[in-house]
Amino acid sequence: MRKIHLISISDPLIYELALAIRDRGYDVTVSGEHVPENVRAVLEGKSIGCFGDGWYPDRLTKETQSVVLGSLVTKDNPELLRAKELGLLVLSIPEFIYQRTKTKIRVVVTGSRGRRAILSMIVAALKKQNLPFDYATTSDVALLDKHLHFSFESRIALIEGDEHIASVLEKRSQLEFYRPHIAVMTNLKWNVSHDHESPEAFMNTYRCFSTSIEREGKLIYFGGDPTISELVEEVRSDITAIPFEEHPTVQRGGMTCLQTRYGDYPVNVLNKYFLVNVNAARLTCRQLGVKDVDFYQVISDFTLSLSV
């Protein structure tokens, strides 16, 4: 059984990652400071070893195949130093997600807004078509009860990508590790809260992301953002760039309907970006084998009953 140690369990994604990979049969240990009793109880129930409250570098051995770092782990963390001393494979969370999904069709949804809504629509369509999928998200996505799920049988992996730094050891953006087959890019807007010191550095992250798309991949992008349109002009010739705009609508019986070649589908327009997000999700689902007519029916039912 493959042994993996995760630092630190106080990072919400590390906690969920521990549960997700234990369910797939890994031998998992974790560590962290100020671990709540309820978290300890869940870990014990899942047979996940917790070293204790604090750091226990002496518990790491060469039998540990890999170590995964939480995003807030510092470079002087005693367990990280011990892992490097032993020559263990040390991965950030994005690097581990890629390793776990590298045999699947990876769909990465990124940008400054709309990621959660687009992912929610894609999830609704895939579930309706009984298409299994793995996923890794940072947002709370409708119809998903957790942020991480891995399986052996699914051929699709949905990933929510952001531009933050991967880990203390890996100063590149998380986006640069996923290597999508299908990249979905909404608008791009830099602000001072990002891990990038300037708009130019922020944009360079997305340039690197576009170059990381797998050969013969697809880039589905918001055509109404001139910054993205400029970036798209630089992508490799083997990548198919597919723009999306706001979906056309018509008013019927006091309701807003998506106007399509298959008829009009009533929807609950949830916000001012909704009609743009619909087209992003539709084009993505088309690449995954979901017919437009089936997508429209799902989105009509979905938006009339749920909030995205």
Mind explaining what this structure looks like?
The protein is an alpha/beta fold and 308 residues long. The protein contains nine helices and 15 strands. The chain has helices at 12-23, 37-45, 78-86, 93-101, 115-128, 199-211, 226-232, 274-287, 292-305; strands at 3-7, 27-32, 49-53, 66-69, 89-92, 105-110, 134-136, 148-149, 156-160, 182-185, 218-222, 240-244, 249-252, 255-260, 263-266. The strands form three sheets. The protein has a seven-stranded mixed beta sheet, sandwiched between helices. A five-stranded parallel beta sheet has the order 3-2-1-4-5, with helices on both faces. Strand 14 and strand 15 (263-266) form a beta hairpin. Helix 5 crosses helix 9 (292-305). The longest helix is centred in the middle third of the chain and has 14 residues, at 115-128. The chain is globular, with a radius of gyration of 21 Å. The relative contact order is 0.12. The model has no long low-confidence stretch (mean pLDDT 93).
Tags for this model:
308 residues, alpha/beta, 7-stranded mixed sheet, 5-stranded parallel sheet
